[in-house]
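In the previous chapter we treated chains in isolation. Here, by contrast, the input contains two separate entities that must be folded as one system, with a combined length of 636 residues.
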Amino acid sequence: MHRITAAEAAAYLRECGDAYILIHRAPDGDCIGAGYSLQAVLRQLGKKARVLCADPIPQRFSFLLPEEPEEEFTPDCILSVDVADELLFGELTETYQGRIDLCIDHHISNQLYAERVLLEECAAATCEVLYQVYWEMGITFTEQITKCLYTGMATDTGCFRFANTTPETHSYTAELMRQFPDIRYDLINRAMFTVKTRQQIQAEITMLRNIEYYLDGKCVMLWATHDICSDAGVNIEDMEGLTSLSLQPEGVEVGITVRERKPGEFKISMRSARDINVSALCAKLGGGGHIRAAGCTIKGTVAEVREKLLAIVSGVLS
Amino acid sequence: MHRITAAEAAAYLRECGDAYILIHRAPDGDCIGAGYSLQAVLRQLGKKARVLCADPIPQRFSFLLPEEPEEEFTPDCILSVDVADELLFGELTETYQGRIDLCIDHHISNQLYAERVLLEECAAATCEVLYQVYWEMGITFTEQITKCLYTGMATDTGCFRFANTTPETHSYTAELMRQFPDIRYDLINRAMFTVKTRQQIQAEITMLRNIEYYLDGKCVMLWATHDICSDAGVNIEDMEGLTSLSLQPEGVEVGITVRERKPGEFKISMRSARDINVSALCAKLGGGGHIRAAGCTIKGTVAEVREKLLAIVSGVLS
């Protein structure tokens, strides 16, 4: 493994042959934008390129996919974008582990598993890293490439809201918008950040109706138990992805979402509104994660889970 | 009245004496950021300056206010920022109408009421216009000025989400962040876009529980009647500012929020998710507004109001 610069990655991509591009399982806006923009760039250079993902691309990202069909071919090289760990290839791990020629990423947790690694830990998104690589390559930014890069940068920063947003996120976005002023960025943002299904709206109501405030409101708990969900007539699966709700109430420092995975086993998602390290709190309960977003699993009754969580959290909040 | 350029406005502000700066009633992030940044800029040049507003500055914007106390003085000139119409001075209108030496604004509806007008209709925010003026003036961008300009641009664009966001919004933001990387922009965004009071959360739940879908889900109606609010134990006043909820459901084109102002009189807020002109729809009901956000008042029973609204909306949606 050796780490390379954006200019070296650009040189490699200019010279490489036909490529497979791996993105992570449970694909999000950044890895989809990174993968499909790179496919478009390589095709622009006359190479064959194909994006591989263990899971299907969610419908709401279909506007980023190319019109040309995927081709069958034998690759000359294998690339990965936005994948911190080969295990995140999902069911493709077995086939491609140890075979990655170039990995481009921004995760500080990157396992440096590839032959060549372009890793920019301070970038908000892999699409931000790729913007520089494409610029070095001197390629033509098309409308599709622009939509991909914009979507990747916007989604990984919560539409430029989170602490990971950099001056470069904004200045690259400005350049993309200048080149393609007619793209409806507002409709991309609407699809990514505003729109909810009726089921999601019901799930949100159900969670917020049972909101619990502790420690002077600094700790908020939201519950998705089988009982709560069946009373409300919502699927417990629809309660996924609602962890950010716990940080809405004014004054909250630690927001906790508890989801009953199976009877008596609870998946805990902990979020920090500002600077409390929830990764350290979850570590005490056998879990881990990032400073502002972490998780763990607790077994017991609802009352026992609540008590364990409050004991841990009150240590840093009172 | 004559319209002037950013360079001319910069020259005027360099030469003007002590100034009153008027902002609009019901102040928002853009007029507050514009007003207090301009006060700081003028003070930097050794002049006295004071921001005047008919309504108090909401608590969540207090981080934009200067530490130095407001002074009493007789102004040499009177400025207005982000005020499209002198009537928006509120109870200050009577005193200052016809006396504005320079107005800086971005509203297309500006009434051109001032002696000199710097109006950039394509700018996302008045703070975006002021960024250019300050740059022309060659002033020192301080931390407070940076926070003011950032907050103005972020709030008027829904954190860079809406169609009014320009490449300049992003590139000026990039420059501000480069100069002051240590400002916690993420905490500003949290305070502006994420945080809700417990009352607001209750009000949202109450509205969403009564959501009505019509015309294949393309029309959504949310109700805040006295009956609904008293059943849920929330104040009808807390239902203000929730009009964006009506655009959350997938597939919605027109979102309508109906608030009972007094028994039998309903205030209608209509929002367009994409391109339907709701200003034209509200005009048919005696109201008006912008293409994507408009309003009107209807008298009658709940059933009558619903019927009138559906008759108007089905004309463009079916």
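Chain A touches chain B at residues 159-163, 165-171, 173-175, 177-178, 181, 184-187, 189-190, 193-198, 201, 204-205, 208-209, 211, 213, 244, 247-250, 273-274 (CB under 8 Å). The mean pLDDT of chain A is 95. Compare these points with the single-chain example from earlier in the chapter.
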